[in-house]
């Protein structure tokens, strides 16, 4: 089954590996007995579903969620049921891929206006005068 992302992008559900682990936090005895937290793993480097620029932006956006091997790990433990945590992890991955699929806007170089340059020079001279007045001068 394919998961649609955006702009004709989709990934195969077989590329996603989901395992369930024990969640911490409140929940009483149930938390200690049932593995409800979902841990999603997606190998971003070797997926054939995404173009190379999207893969590179995806790994940069994922930050600390990427392992050294290029696997994105998302842990969802917000809900009390496995199914809801599984859906939450998949939605978070798809949102991350959607964000990476948008190409960055190129910056257009601009020059500071005359007024901005004047204000900058005025603040510099004011700061310089403040520091000059702080210095100790011998009256001799």
From TrEMBL:
Is Ribonucleoprotein there in the keyword field? no
- Report keywords, A-Z: Hydrolase
Q: Domain of life of the organism in this record?
A: Bacteria
Enzyme class label:
hydrolase
GO biological process annotations for this chain's record?
Answer: rescue of stalled ribosome
Domain Prokaryotic-type class I peptide chain release factors residue range list: 9-134
UniProt biased composition (Basic and acidic residues): 114-125
GO molecular-function terms, A-Z: peptidyl-tRNA hydrolase activity; ribosome binding; translation release factor activity
- Which EC number(s) does UniProt give? 3.1.1.29
Question: Region Disordered: which residues?
Answer: 103-140
Name the Gene3D superfamilies on file: 3.30.160.20
**Annotated Pfam families:** RF-1
> Would the keyword Ribosomal protein turn up in this protein's UniProt record?
no
Its name, as the record gives it, is: Aminoacyl-tRNA hydrolase
Give the originating organism: Lichenicoccus roseus
